[in-house]
């Protein structure tokens, strides 16, 4: 059993560290974007170095006090807030945000965990390189949090998720030891892959303090288009056409149901929308090409081939950077519109590509039988990753349907699982989906996870209640 | 302590499995390509199903008998042969070689561990797709072995190593439980990354029985060239030019020192060589481009820009598939020539790209001070991965220098380590490099590896003596 970070513990901890390191938590340290949990915290620790992180961990280990690692606070599954149990130490990496080095000729950048994703991207840009991880929350989320949750976003199709963009991590383990892994290497087969074990472990196996990141050369020729498709099946066929036209050069391929533009019109009437009357289904496709090719021509080819095959009925090819930005604003503001409307239940699911249309049909029909819900289905089609969120009918409030939230979630996740999918594609398990792991997880896998957690963190001080309960 | 797979154990095991599953080991099960170890084995188990693999593991677990997993036998660090200790069961996956399914529209293929790499590649080709892992030993090595060792090869620069090409694994753990992980998903953030923990663990944490693999669309336009450079520094600058010309489209970038062509002339005089007099340093560059571009034109551009910058003095652009094959034959036959000459010490090292030229200089000078050795330095420059092999002077035999082998290895590895490199880039640790892990490994990392090994395989039955001793 863990002990609370009580007054005595907090006072002792504060004395062992430089002044200002241990403070009272601010509201932002106890909140999360969906307001489903209110966090507890005896204090917040704001270390300025890896050695200070290790000191905090050792003190917590000795006193059996829990630690909740905190990055930018943008996680959607409650991994950053502990709502019950003995008050933990909230360990925020926000003062460790240095870019320790950048090696453009090696395509490598080393950043501390508290650096914001936007700062990492800007540092890469400044060196003529690109860090491809791209999320709507890039101005708030931290690279440490991105790695701890193996964040995804819109460019996974081409460059992979956070895991694929990380060459190595420095981390503090539960015993206070510092794992040094900041090599600037593409290849290193000297033993077990602890980097990937820590990435996606949501702070339950160690605290990532810095990372060696992979940069890429930005594609010299880029372009984007919105294309109107009849449905998800046609969207997938259009994706196959795009990949055949420009193999490896499709940087993003996003699916947008008209509920998204409708919600935007309702909540952000000033946002410029590309279509006066939103079509039922849209895809947003972005290409990144080598020199010597024209993105607009290739997108026209794609449109032409798509129209000929009966897949595409209308479309817009961005004629300027500002039009391209409009297309992306449409896409990137959908999560905020969702938040303003207020979902009854939100789902971040992945399916085998060929199961996507069947899932959308089946889940839509099953939900229609339950009630007059509005469904916003959008996301990273190229990755098989849908954000499938269920809302009350227009005029009703989410609170009126709170009693159905669990049943809706179970219904959606059961269909996903039956079709070989995942109930957490890119958000992680946090505290929201620990029950799903028990329900859907492969028993041998869950048992091995428990064995590893017990071996590396026997007292269970690291992010108690997250991932495994 | 482990027990030997003695006559009684083998007889009992044989009775519990279908006839023909348990046999006497053949010579190939006890050999490895460099003839440094002769393996032990009480028997070889040849299961035909994952359930049979689990039966073998449970029997070995109950009797505390070691298991040496065996793929294609091509490993270069002795991971597949146990030369001392109580005779183990050799568990060969060679009869589990089915391609269980292929989903071209999803770019996914599921194969059993015993499928040869060439068979997996052919199955992908047959579906209009490509499995990009490409090694000289593809006709012999198995996909299970490729994953267990996180194999690399010539296309890592563009498509990553075995780890990056695997979506999920099915494996048998030390307790005989079957981990089911064959999802056809790009994204799955439901807990710890056991897939990557097993990949590269060289059979010491579990036995991979099948894998879900990532396919790609083959680039429609390809081309290759050999270019003569003054040295590794210029080769790196040429790589940067190539990446700027065709970002993300450089499929391979191999460095070849003239020792390679010289050894080929000595050992395989009939092999057609592109240059009558081999240049001191060559690079082999391969591009894979979208439709609408010409590989020959782009390689000419690269040559022109390289010549203008003083990086390239001569070159050949493949004018036909057969000339391209000749270029690759030159590269792919170097390991066999090395084997025929007989190295005193072979090294598979990775360095930060900008440290490569300094390493080659420093190691060359240090070795010259030790003796009149011939050095064959070649490999995957784009990945920072060199195969740096040290040979006796012409006319002398490797046996004459056996006493210096350890000192040579230590010298090379010390320089690599001091420059932030890795002493095993793509071959793994096996039994050859366990001492290097102790010498160069981050102590917290090695301790965490031991903790994980002890937790998942407390009796130590899985590949005893490999990776960790």
Secondary structure topology:
The structure is a homodimer of 469-residue chains.
Chain A: H1 7-15, E1 22-23, E2 43-45, H2 50-63, E3 67-70, E4 89-92, E5 99-103, E6 108-112, H3 117-126, H4 143-148, H5 156-159, E7 166-173, E8 178-179, H6 194-198, E9 206-214, E10 221-229, H7 232-245, E11 250-257, H8 259-267, E12 281-289, H9 295-308, E13 312-317, H10 321-341, E14 348-350, H11 356-370, E15 374-380, E16 385-391, H12 405-418, H13 434-440, H14 443-456
Parallel strand pairs in A: 2-4, 3-4
Antiparallel strand pairs in A: 1-2, 5-6, 6-9, 7-8, 7-9, 10-12, 10-13, 11-12, 11-15, 14-16, 15-16
Helix pairs in contact in A: 7-9, 8-10, 11-12
First-to-last CA distance of chain A? 13 Å
The class by helix and strand makeup of chain A works out as alpha+beta
Give the second-level CATH assignment, the architecture of the domain at 219-339 in chain A. Answer: 2-Layer Sandwich
Percent helix among the residues of chain A?
25-40%
Q: Per the principal axes of the C-alpha atoms, what is the gross shape of chain A? A: globular
Topology, number of strands of chain A:
16
Query: What is the CATH fold-level name of the domain at 219-339 in chain A?
Result: Alpha-Beta Plaits
The succession of helices and strands of chain A, N to C, reads HEEHEEEEHHHEEHEEHEHEHEHEHEEHHH
Family (chains A, B): Belongs to the FAD-binding oxidoreductase/transferase type 4 family.
Domain FAD-binding PCMH-type (chains A, B): 30-218
Cofactor (chains A, B): FAD
Keywords (chains A, B): FAD, Flavoprotein
């Amino acid at each position: 059993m863990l002990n609370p970070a009580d007054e005595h513990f907090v006072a002792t901890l504060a004395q062992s560290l430089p002044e200002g390191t241990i403070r009272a938590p601010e509201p932002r340290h106890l909140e999360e974007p969906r307001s489903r949990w209110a966090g507890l915290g005896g204090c917040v620790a704001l270390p300025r170095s890896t050695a200070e992180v290790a000191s905090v961990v050792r003190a917590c280990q000795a006193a059996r006090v829990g630690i909740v690692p905190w990055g930018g606070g943008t996680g959607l599954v409650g991994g950053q807030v502990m709502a019950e149990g003995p008050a933990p130490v909230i360990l925020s990496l926000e003062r460790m945000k240095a870019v320790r080095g950048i090696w453009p000729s090696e395509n490598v950048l080393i950043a501390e965990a508290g650096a914001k994703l936007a700062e990492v991207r800007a540092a890469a840009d400044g060196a003529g390189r690109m860090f491809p991880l791209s999320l709507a929350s890039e101005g708030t989320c931290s690279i440490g949090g991105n790695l701890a949750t193996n964040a995804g976003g819109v460019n996974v199709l081409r460059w992979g998720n956070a895991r694929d963009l990380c060459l190595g991590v420095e981390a503090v383990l539960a015993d206070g030891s510092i794992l040094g892994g900041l090599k600037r290497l593409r290849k290193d087969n000297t033993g077990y892959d602890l980097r990937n074990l820590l990435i996606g472990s949501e702070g339950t196996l160690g605290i990532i303090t810095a990372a060696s990141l992979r940069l890429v050369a930005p594609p010299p020729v880029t372009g984007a288009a919105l294309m109107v498709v009849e449905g998800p099946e046609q969207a997938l066929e259009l994706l196959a056409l795009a990949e055949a036209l420009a193999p490896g050069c499709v940087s993003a391929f996003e699916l947008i149901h008209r509920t998204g533009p409708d919600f935007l019109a309702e909540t952000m009437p000033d946002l410029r929308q590309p279509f006066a009357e939103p079509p039922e289904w849209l895809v947003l496709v972005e290409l990144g090409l080598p020199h010597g090719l024209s993105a607009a021509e290739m997108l026209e080819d794609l449109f032409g081939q798509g129209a000929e095959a009966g897949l595409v009925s209308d479309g817009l090819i961005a004629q300027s950077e500002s039009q391209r930005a409009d297309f992306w604003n449409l896409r990137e503001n959908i999560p905020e519109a969702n938040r303003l409307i207020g979902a009854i239940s939100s789902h971040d699911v992945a399916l085998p590509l060929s199961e996507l249309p069947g899932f959308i049909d089946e889940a839509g029909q099953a939900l229609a039988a339950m009630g007059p819900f509005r469904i916003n289905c959008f996301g990273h089609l190229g990755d098989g990753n849908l954000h499938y969120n269920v809302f009350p009918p227009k005029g009703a409030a989410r609170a009126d349907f709170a009693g159905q939230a669990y049943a809706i979630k179970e219904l959606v996740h059961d269909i996903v699982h039956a079709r070989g999918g995942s109930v957490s594609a890119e958000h992680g398990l946090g505290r929201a989906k620990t029950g799903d792991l028990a329900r859907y997880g492969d028993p041998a896998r869950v048992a091995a996870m428990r064995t590893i957690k017990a071996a590396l963190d026997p007292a269970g001080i690291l992010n108690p209640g997250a991932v495994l309960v």
